[in-house]
Design a protein that fits this description.
Elements lengths: L6 E6 L3 H13 L3 E8 L2 H10 L3 E4 L1 H5 L6 E4 L3 H13 L3 E5 L6 H14 L3 E4 L7 H10 L6 E9 L12 H4 L2 H17 L4 E10 L4 E10 L5 E7 L5 E8 L3 E4 L12 E6 L2 E6 L5 H13 L8 H18 E5 L1
Parallel strand pairs: 1-2, 1-4, 2-3, 4-5, 5-6, 7-10, 8-15
Antiparallel strand pairs: 7-11, 8-9, 9-10, 11-12, 12-13, 13-14
The structure holds NADP nicotinamide-adenine-dinucleotide phosphate.
Length: 328
Amino acid sequence: MERVEPLTVGAVGCSDVAWRRTLPTFQAHDGIRLVCVAGRDPDRTRRYAERFSCAAEHGYEDLLRRDDVEAVYLSLPGALHAEWVERSLLAGKHVLVEKPYAVDPQEASRLEALAARTGLVLLENYAFVHHPMHDHVRRLVDDGAIGEVRSFSSAFTIPPKPYGDIRYHKELTGGTLLDTGVYPLRAAMLMLDADLEVHAAVMRRERERDAVLSGDALLTTPSGVAVHVEFGMEHGYRARYEIHGSEGGLFVDRVFTPPAGHPPVVTLWRQNHRQEFTLEAADQLALLVGVFHRAVRGREAIGTLGERSLRLSMLTRDVARRAVYFDV
Ligand SMILES: NC(=O)c1ccc[n+]([C@@H]2O[C@H](COP(=O)([O-])OP(=O)(O)OC[C@H]3O[C@@H](n4cnc5c(N)ncnc54)[C@H](OP(=O)(O)O)[C@@H]3O)[C@@H](O)[C@H]2O)c1
């Protein structure tokens, strides 16, 4: 088999998600060679470099100047992403960026246009869309297992984070809609494959830090399928969706961040008949990293993923505009 050169990657930001998830996945992946990490704190950056056996740069610009870095992985607070995506593309680097890559649709469309103009790959990290469990669910729906689809609901909620977490700083992250709300909205886009319109939303906002803590939104597809999404950082952990149809329903749990070894279970019910399908486990982050590698090497197009990212950015703007805010 023809050998494809590993992609040399530099990681910008010594973040929690990089330490726990992404950099270990890079290390284990044949298609990636992590050559450098960059951070603001020299001791912390050195600790990352030692664990992942790579070079350390003190300052993000120094990493972008390196000739041995073909692509960057950005995991900064969301509101800083657009600036560093832009700087990275202008430095000639392909970009894999944590969600959200932009805080509003203007920023998102500017970034998509720049990636197109420079001919570089820009991919936002929604790993869950690459998990095969969703194809399985879609096949069941397409085969008529639940009849005609009537409604979709999805929740991504997490327990509160420590007091100083970036998610409580509106100016750093844009709030929990852009952190947790994006997941059920992206899931609705993935599973219904239709344009969504936002009709109503409520958000609970903390007075003290002016931080949105949680929210609910109601949307529809053009054919009238109702969509309910729930998100936030003040509930027990939930990461699930349900699809209800004229003859039955489907439920899947742990849909957004399933561990690599977790076999997903899909529950199907029709009248009094109930069936469970246990699917094969998959490492969704490794699958996304593979997509990024093949896209940079010109072996696979990322297709509509950029368009989807832009559309998602429009939906989050619409949810924020429609929302009634309750201060708590
Ligand atoms: N895809 C997923 O499954 C997933 C999961 C969790 C998080 N995320 C996303 O990943 C990103 C990072 O999240 P996280 O929880 O890992 O955050 P985090 O641990 O707080 O890391 C953010 C990093 O950004 C850098 N930074 C630059 N300017 C900063 C500032 N003014 N304040 C704070 N940090 C600053 C810091 O690195 P240096 O000090 O080294 O520069 C910091 O370590 C977010 O966009 C989040 O939405 C994605």
